[in-house]
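Researcher: Go.
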Amino acid sequence: MECKLSEIEQKIPKQIYECLEKNDIKELRPAQSKAVKAGLLEGKNLLVCTPTASGKTLIAELAATKSILEGRGKAIYITPLKALASEKYREFKKKYNDMFNIALAIGDMDSPDYHLANYDLIICTSEKLDSLIRHHSPWIKQVAVVIADEIHLLNDHGRGPTLEILLTMLRQMIKGIQIIGLSATIGNEKELAEWLDANLVDDKWRPVELHKGIYFDEKLKFY
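Model: Structure:
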């Protein structure tokens, strides 16, 4: 199921291919290969349900960077927590700062943040994006890719409704927008994929095999 990095060389921007090569990536992980086959690089909506550390973030990066560097439009990366947004911001700045402009938008101020029009990749929380849309930030319509990290939180009583409304509004506002949902824990993936009009990428591979066991009386028994 895996494919060589060279197999997608012609489908992604040269800068991204060279960046992956520089990081010694020679072949895609199973979930990444499935995502490519499911239309990741053709602008298809995807719901990616795979274990932690299986390569979900790179799937999102490929969609976002391709859109930005090929001039299709901006990308938004939505996270549920400010801490996670800050972590992704540092990670992406380290990798892509020389290629395009990256912004972190997690402030509590309720404003349109017009300066974000100068950025290509905006990393934010659901609550911040909700504020930006309600203020009719003009650059929103320049967005071509939206990544929803931890999308299983749609089921969360606190954050779920905001994220659900955001995804619904963005699909109505921007024709042809690509939605990439990422989750390691979700129980109704088929129903959610149908709601997103997305292709489901489901895989159980993980870099380190997971074993279950019980520790009792100073003994560990696996089962």
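Model: The chain has one domain: 39-222.
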